[in-house]
Amino acid sequence: MKTSPSSSVSRPRVLIIGCGFGGLEAARHLRKADVDITIVEKTNHHLFQPLLYQVATAGLAAPSIAAPTRLLFREQRNVTTLLGEVVEILPATQEAVLADGLRLGYDHLIVAAGSTHSYFGNDQWAEFAPGLKTLADAFQIRSHVLMSFEQAEKESDPVRQRALLTFVVIGGGPTGVEMAGTLAEIARHTLEGEFRRIDPASSEILLVEGGSRVLQAMPESLSQKAREQLERLGVKVRLGARVTSIDATGLQVTVDGQDERIPSYCVIWAAGVAASPLGKLMATATGAESDRAGRVKVEPDLSLAAHPEISVVGDLAAAMSYVPGKEPKPVPGVSPGAKQMGRAAAANILLRIAGRPTKPFRYADYGNLATIGRNSAVVDLETPFGALRFSGKPAWLFWLFAHVYFLIGFRNRFVVLMDWASAYWSFQRHARVVADVGASGKSES
Known about the structure:
Elements: E1 13-17, H1 21-29, E2 36-41, E3 45-47, H2 52-56, E4 66-68, H3 69-72, E5 79-83, E6 86-90, E7 95-98, E8 103-105, E9 108-111, E10 115-117, H4 135-154, H5 158-164, E11 166-170, H6 174-190, E12 204-209, H7 220-233, E13 235-239, E14 241-247, E15 250-255, E16 258-263, E17 266-269, E18 273-275, H8 278-286, E19 296-297, E20 303-304, E21 307-312, E22 317-318, E23 320-321, E24 329-330, H9 335-353, E25 367-373, E26 376-383, E27 386-391, H10 393-406, H11 410-426
Parallel strand pairs: 1-2, 1-9, 2-5, 9-21, 11-12, 11-17, 12-13, 19-22
Antiparallel strand pairs: 3-4, 6-7, 7-8, 10-18, 14-15, 15-16, 20-21, 23-24, 25-26, 26-27
Helix pairs in contact: 1-9, 4-5
């Protein structure tokens, strides 16, 4: 096997697997540290996932929410970035093995490999109901949505045409709510007047949720407001609907014990999240425990019990927040949690290097945001003065500026703001180009 060269034999080697929110923040926190950092990432970019659905629904171009990893660390001289996938971790020799056989040694390891889709044991559904985690997923969904309208324009069979104009989003969390609301806007406004044989506004947008309400992480009052705003946009919200099967022509759901078939050629999965497969590899290699979602259980300082040199952060970690005088609480799988864990893990590495005790992780919960559509959103903020909850246009503006603020780089902030301003006044979504469409009308991109 190949072994990576070492830039210094004296400085501690920090290996970071993954350059999502957790990995990025960890590396940035160590920018002034006397360490050698190696970041391994399967893609060549950092992705701002909260806005990924905007790429999937043609609202934004991919470069607006992504930044090349090498560009991000061009000025951070203690960072080396490598494109590759870790397939094995060897705690005994403190090495990580890449798919091409390269071995990377480490003194301290931060695993921030993120999460993937979970179909609750029905992985065969992935072929018919793609999820949304990567740019490739976003391109696939965007193509699938736009091609459904194109094929409906050519379809002479009214039953098949109706199925082509039925869009189903499974899962009532933030991604599902945002996706359903945006699809309704595309059908009602963006495509107005562009087709001759179909009326896009006649499309049926269904949001299918197995629970009793959407946005279950939010207070019930905001969940209700979110549902009302979705319905005003034309989305049909189906609560208590449990999906039992999905195939190429639709899905089967059970509602109150009754089976129902929903014909649809465009089904989008936003219902389940599972830890990266690297979590299982780690658990096997280190003897660490994992939960049902495959997340690795960590110590209060985010390290592994038998291997304090290994820390796990972000969606891959089954972590708790430790506040003095209060019961520990699970850390939610959201971007602020991943960022805070990344910084905490990096800070604890510096404490270990200095021979000082590490600190337990404490999560600062600032609340939740979700946008439903044009002038529609819900906000649940935690402030020193208590909870602040509001909805409608003020919440939408707050959501918009918060997301622009947290984007990586001035260019991305400027481009996204301009694209959104244009879309707001024109109702248009300009990232609607689909490449490699064959004679069948199906995208091959």
